Amino acid sequence: MTLRRLITTLAAALALAGAAHAQYRDDQFKRDAFSQNYADTTQNVKADSSQLFSFKEFFGGLAHKNTASLKTLSIGSTVFIGGNQIYNRQYWKLPIIYGGIGAGVAGGIYFNNQFKQTGDSKFQTYSTLSYVGAGLVWWGSLMDGAVTYNRGQRPDPSKSTLYSILLPGLGQVYNGEFWKVPLYLGLMAGSVNYWIDNNVQYQRWKWTYDQASSTEEGVEKPPQTAETAKYYRDVFRRYRDYSILAVALSYLIQVVDANVFAYMQDFEVNDDISLRVEPSIQQSLGHAYAVTPPAVGMSIGLKF
User: Fold this and answer.
1) Residue 199: how many CB atoms within 10 A of its CB?
2) Residues 272, 274, 278, 281, Cα dihedral to 10°
3) What ranges in 88-179 are assigned the alpha helix state H?
4) Rounded CA gap, 120 and 100, in Å?
5) Helix, strand, coil share of the chain (percent; to 5)
6) Could you give the 3-state DSSP secondary structure of residue 65?
7) How crowded is the C-beta side of 183, counted as CA atoms within 13 Å?
8) Residue 292 confidence (pLDDT)
9) Which pLDDT value is given to residue 247?
10) 8 A C-beta contact, residue 104 and residue 135
């Protein structure tokens, strides 16, 4: 008799507690419904998190008025060169970056003018190498900004992603997944080789088709007919396009892989399998201003 009375008293206490909690939630709902603050705050947070680039965040970071993400700094520094170094207060690197880029561009312009005046192909080569050098300095400034950026998290998904964008395979090295590097580099190298080989064959059959279909006198006709040459020209052009797509996909896959597995570093998998049983109170849904009695039951949780 005493045990039955104890259970009845406990159930009544749980019911009163559930009713009080429901009344509190109803009162809070009334206040929020008239204030309208809850919806505006959520909307602002979503709008801020969906921005790809923020000028306010970027220039505020350069002025050291606020912190800026590596994504914002990297995108901004592609145009405003040296932004990463200014944010990291490494001002001594700016003359090296601007001097290297300026020297490369100036050398490219100078040697290109020399090539136009003399027609010597070596000046054209020098001009191309000068522009490539300027591009490497620009690329190095972005890589330096990613390396020196300190977020206090390892691995940082932003760093891993930027590393893979700037140098394929480097994001996997940063994540400690060295075994993936030969896989992705081999995939990209094979796709590039496939691209080059098919482009050579395309150019060959394109020339053959042009010669076979030419109506000019004195043009040496190849042994293949124009129809045959056209068929193989189109085939190898299609294969070349597929190989370009394969290069782009293999590059994109290794970037996505570096980002995803950097995030998954904190994902913990263990052998802990447990079953948890405990009492629970569930408030049934009703009218917004109505107090409905709670439902008392048991909850079962399985962890694996």
Assistant:
1) 16
2) 70
3) 94-118, 121-148, 157-166, 170-174
4) 26
5) 70, 5, 25
6) coil
7) 9
8) 60
9) 94
10) yes
The string over 109-140, giving b where at least 16 C-beta atoms fall within 10 Å of a residue's C-beta and e elsewhere, is: eebbebbeeeeeeebeebbeebbebbeebbeb
Cα(first)–Cα(last) distance of the chain, in Å? 41
Cis peptide before 155 (omega within 30 of 0): yes
211, 177 contact by CB (below 8 A)? no
**Residue 245: which residues within 8 A CB-CB, separation 6 or more?**
none
Give the predicted TM-score (pTM) of the model: 0.63
Q: What is the DSSP letter of 285?
A: P
Q: Is 18 within 8 Å of 294 (Cβ atoms)? A: yes
Amino acid letter, 232: Y
Query: Rounded distance, CA 44 to CA 66, Å?
Result: 19
pLDDT of amino acid 188: 94
Nearest to 111 by CA among 141, 96, 92, 133: 133
Give mean pLDDT, residues 30-55. 51
Q: What is the DSSP letter of 154?
A: S
Model pLDDT, residue 287: 52
Residue with tokens 């972005």: 142
* 131: phi then psi, degrees, rounded to nearest 5: -65, -40
Residue 75 sits at φ, ψ, to 5 deg, of -65, -45
d(CA 55, CA 31): 37
The structure tokens 């005493």 sit at 2
Q: Give residue 27's identity as a one-letter amino acid code.
A: D
Query: Which residue's structure tokens are 């009218």?
Result: 287
What lies within 8 Å, CB to CB, of 299 at 6+ separation is 277, 278, 279, 280
pLDDT-derived band at 301, boundaries 50, 70, 90 = low
Domain boundaries, the chain: 2-44+272-303, 178-265
- The tokens of 33 are what? 């419904």
